[in-house]
């Protein structure tokens, strides 16, 4: 018997978010076969954005109907994202300095402090002041943070826009963003771009389209559902998106199609699917650690990769170790650091009016 999805928790989408987070780390583990197997792994980020739009619209649509609610929403978003982001930033800075002291990497002394200050402020590093190569990275100490920055931009656009425009204008904006995605992707090698200043437009177009698409899915679900969806249907479609080996000549075309059509359809179906009770706990855990795995894995792997290289361990061991290492560290950080800190920050700066739903709104 399946445990149906509910407004309080989209359990299947929790599990899919966790799968997506582990797919993203494939870019940073020493395994070319895995990269070939998951050739569309970077599209997981677009899935994150769509899911975020859906979940935030579910949780906060009523809140952002007045200025006080918008301000409260911004506080909650910062409280949700900042603790683990700050931990990743601190780890990345510490590893970068350790590498520099041992002569293992390049650090420009005059750029480290400005990059660190902008990082603490949750802002991109100045374009010519990257602390570590490549020097035009938006967030040189923790690369995946580029998507968090762009998501906050999308969150602001949605919350402020909710005060000023209706659903029809949002749909018009969504159509413009869809065209923008199609145009900007051909300025980059892949749709997976967005983490460098040189492909800033690609990242911004990805998040604006996908996030507002998630909001539109929320509106669509409120208007019409198609009934109970077999769990294997959205799961199979999701794995197809991540693994389809599109030929190089058609890769960008497939990426655009996946972003504009396949991913939104997958999220729409998954929001109406049932998950087997036996998998309920695993899906919830995957959802819980997904954000931490995503935002912590790069700085963690920076240090772990050097240690493993010096130990001379094999590729298979390294891949398994890094995945398990990321999961365990993230779980511990979530339970003993993130959740208690968020609880204190909400009580101190927001108040205690949030429902259980808002306690669990997560950025993949």
Distance between the termini: 27 Å
Counted up, domains total 1
Biggest β-sheet strands, sense, barrel:
2 strands, antiparallel
Average of the residue pLDDT scores:
88
**Residue fraction in strands:** under 5%
Order of helices and strands: EHHHHHHHHHHEHHH
The number of strands is: 2
SSE class = mainly alpha
**How many H/I helical runs?**
13
Radius of gyration using CA atoms only: 20 Å
Ranges where pLDDT stays below 50 over 5 or more residues in a row are 1-8, 355-364
Largest sheet: spatial strand order: 1-2
Rough shape? Answer: globular
* Percentage of residues in helical conformation: 55-70%
Characterise this structure.
By secondary structure, the chain is mainly alpha-helical. It has one domain. It is 70% helix and 2% strand. The chain contains 13 helices and two strands; from the N terminus they run βααααααααααβααα. The chain has a two-stranded antiparallel ribbon. It is globular and about 60 Å long.
Short account of what is shown:
The protein is mainly α and 364 residues long. It has 13 helices and two strands, in the order βααααααααααβααα. It is globular.
Q: Topology of this protein?
A:
Elements: E1 2-4, H1 11-24, H2 32-37, H3 44-60, H4 67-102, H5 109-120, H6 145-164, H7 167-184, H8 200-223, H9 232-243, H10 251-270, E2 274-276, H11 277-311, H12 315-349, H13 356-359
Antiparallel strand pairs: 1-2
Helix pairs in contact: 1-3, 1-11, 3-8, 3-10, 4-6, 4-11, 4-12, 6-8, 7-8, 8-10, 9-10, 11-12
């Amino acid at each position: 018997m399946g445990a149906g999805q509910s407004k309080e928790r989209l359990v299947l989408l929790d599990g899919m978010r966790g799968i997506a987070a582990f797919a993203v780390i494939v870019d940073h583990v020493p395994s070319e076969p895995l990269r070939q197997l998951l050739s569309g792994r970077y599209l997981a980020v677009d899935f994150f954005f769509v899911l975020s739009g859906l979940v935030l619209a579910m949780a906060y649509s009523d809140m952002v109907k007045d200025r006080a609610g918008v301000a409260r929403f911004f506080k909650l978003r910062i409280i949700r994202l900042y603790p683990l982001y700050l931990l990743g930033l601190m780890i990345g800075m510490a590893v970068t300095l350790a590498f520099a002291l041992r002569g293992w990497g390049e650090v420009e002394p005059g750029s480290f402090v400005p990059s660190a200050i902008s990082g603490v402020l949750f802002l991109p590093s100045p374009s010519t002041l990257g602390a570590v190569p490549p020097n035009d990275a938006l967030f040189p100490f923790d690369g995946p943070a580029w998507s968090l920055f762009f998501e906050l931009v999308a969150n602001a656009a949605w919350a402020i826009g909710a005060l000023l425009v209706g659903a029809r204008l949002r749909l018009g904006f969504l159509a413009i963003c869809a065209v923008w995605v199609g145009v900007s992707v051909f300025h980059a090698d892949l749709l997976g771009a967005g983490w460098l200043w040189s492909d800033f437009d690609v990242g911004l177009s990805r998040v604006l389209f996908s996030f507002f698409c998630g909001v539109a899915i929320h509106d669509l679900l409120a208007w019409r559902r198609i009934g109970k969806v077999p769990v294997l249907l959205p799961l199979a479609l999701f794995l197809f998106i991540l693994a389809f080996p599109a030929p190089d000549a058609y890769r960008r075309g497939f990426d655009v199609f996946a972003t504009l059509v396949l991913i939104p359809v997958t999220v729409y179906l998954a929001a109406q699917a049932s998950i087997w009770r036996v998998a309920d706990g695993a899906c919830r855990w995957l959802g819980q650690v997904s954000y931490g795995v995503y935002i912590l894995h790069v700085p963690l792997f920076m240090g772990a990769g050097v240690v493993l290289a010096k130990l001379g361990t094999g590729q298979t061991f390294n891949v398994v170790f890094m995945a398990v290492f990321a999961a365990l560290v993230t779980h511990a950080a979530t339970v003993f650091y993130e959740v208690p800190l968020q609880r204190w920050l909400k009580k101190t700066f927001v108040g205690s009016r949030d429902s259980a739903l808002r306690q669990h709104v997560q950025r993949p």
